[in-house]
Specification:
Number of domains: 1
Structural class: alpha/beta
CATH superfamily: Vaccinia Virus protein VP39
CATH class: Alpha Beta
Radius of gyration: 15 Å
Distance between the termini: 35 Å
Order of helices and strands: HEHEHEHEHEEE
Mean pLDDT: 93
CATH architecture: 3-Layer(aba) Sandwich
CATH topology: Rossmann fold
Largest sheet: 7 strands, mixed
Low-confidence stretches: none
Strand content: 25-35%
Number of helices: 5
Strand order of the largest sheet: 3-2-1-4-5-7-6
Shape: globular
Helix content: 25-40%
Amino acid sequence: MRIIGGKFKGRRFNPPAKNWPTRPTTDYSKEGLFNILYNNWDFEEMKMLDLFGGTGNHSYEFISRGCKDVTYVDKFGGCISFVKKTAETLEIEDNIKIVRADVFKFIEKTNLKYNYIFAGPPYPLPRLDEIPDMIFKYKLLAEEGWLVVEHNGNHGFKDHPNYFDERQYGGTIFSFFEYK
């Protein structure tokens, strides 16, 4: 895993491989996504939510580019430990809130709003298709904000009322949502 931009550009981290429940976004697809984000957002002014945060890959990219308010959510203890250790290594503990929780329960209970929400769930997750509906139902997205859901070709969101774009990088698809 490599940070591709910002002040930590080039830093590499190796999550433990044994029983690791993650699928980190490839550098190729991450570069494509961050090119889009860079041209549309001021990272320093964002409040970002990283759902199914796994290795923390997206959280580190946002902080590396100047985001000072990142919330990372995952339920796996190994992931939480890895992200805490990495945050200490990068000395970014003040910029990241690490939450160990089931993502669906977190969505239902939080009362915070975010400018940008990234959801990178496991592709075979049975409830993956519910994520956009839940984000809008519980009003986690700020009025001008974006939700990006990472998925593969087994899922499609083009008929969702808040969908506005899709980008594909190899087998990785990013669907974009906003308030209409």
